[in-house]
Design goal:
Elements lengths: L1 E6 L12 H8 L4 E6 L12 E3 L7 E3 L1 H12 L6 E11 L2 H8 L3 E6 L7 H6 L3 E4 L9 H12 L10 H4 L18 E2 L2 E2 L9 H19 L2 H8 L1
Parallel strand pairs: 1-2, 1-6, 5-6, 5-7
Antiparallel strand pairs: 3-4, 8-9
């Protein structure tokens, strides 16, 4: 998979992509993550890419021209399955969406900034708008990092144990059950005996009960999706 990210602050993304699972995925050649500075597509001597909004609203807006040039330049070199804009009013990022995006070949991500981007970009150039939650960030870089992380870890071969992702929260619209490791007893706190019983059928039953209980208590709206399936 190739992921190209356009940003006015690409340096914010260097850290998240240079460590842990995302770094290993790149080292294995399973994903290529490329950062593109939007200011490189500016045509004025100050390399500015923003201007005041038309109308009475305060705040700066990313201009249509440099964004258009950036997207068209990247499209001339690669076919993209999705051109995503990180926006607080976009489609909410869910595990289902992450699963869908992980099956794509090439993705472009445009990071919002300031007051937002010229709406003509959203009308004519973007194929999908994605939000990581109902709140506003200073820019879309952190959202882009979250989107990329949630997608890349699902690519076959990225995780050492690919079955690990299958038991993540939200994969089946349920929260994951509790997990434990050694020692079996610490400070008087014991690991549930069923997990050490070796009876996999009983363990699976316990895990399902725990998943349902935690989902009902913490995210009850998810159970509506389970009932609809």
């Amino acid at each position: 998979m190739q992921i190209d990210i356009i940003s006015v602050l690409p340096e914010l993304l260097q850290g998240p992509f240079a460590h842990s699972i995302l770094k290993r995925a790149q080292d294995k050649g399973l994903v290529s993550i490329n950062l593109h500075h939007l200011r490189n597509y500016s045509t004025n001597r100050h390399r500015s890419v923003d201007d005041y909004a038309f109308g009475p609203d305060a705040g700066m807006v990313l201009q249509v021209e440099p964004i258009y040039r950036a997207i068209e330049d990247l499209k001339s070199r690669c076919h993209y399955d999705e051109i995503i804009y990180t926006s607080p009013d976009g489609e909410l990022l869910t595990q289902k969406l992450a699963n869908e995006l992980s099956s794509k070949q090439n993705i472009m991500v445009l990071c919002g900034h300031y007051k937002g981007i010229d709406h003509r970009v959203r009308e004519h150039l973007i194929t999908r708008e994605v939000s990581i939650g109902d709140y506003v960030l200073s820019g879309g870089e952190l959202a882009a990092a979250v989107i990329v992380d949630s997608v890349v870890r699902l690519i076959p071969g990225v995780l050492n144990d690919e079955t690990s992702a299958l038991s993540d929260s939200f994969q089946d619209n349920l929260l994951a059950p509790p997990v434990y490791s050694r020692p079996a007893v610490f400070n008087g706190w014991e690991v549930p005996k069923v997990l050490m019983s070796g009876n996999f059928k009983e363990i699976e039953r316990w895990q399902m009960e725990q998943a349902l209980e935690r989902t009902k208590r913490l995210r009850p709206h998810l159970l509506d999706s389970v009932d609809e399936q």
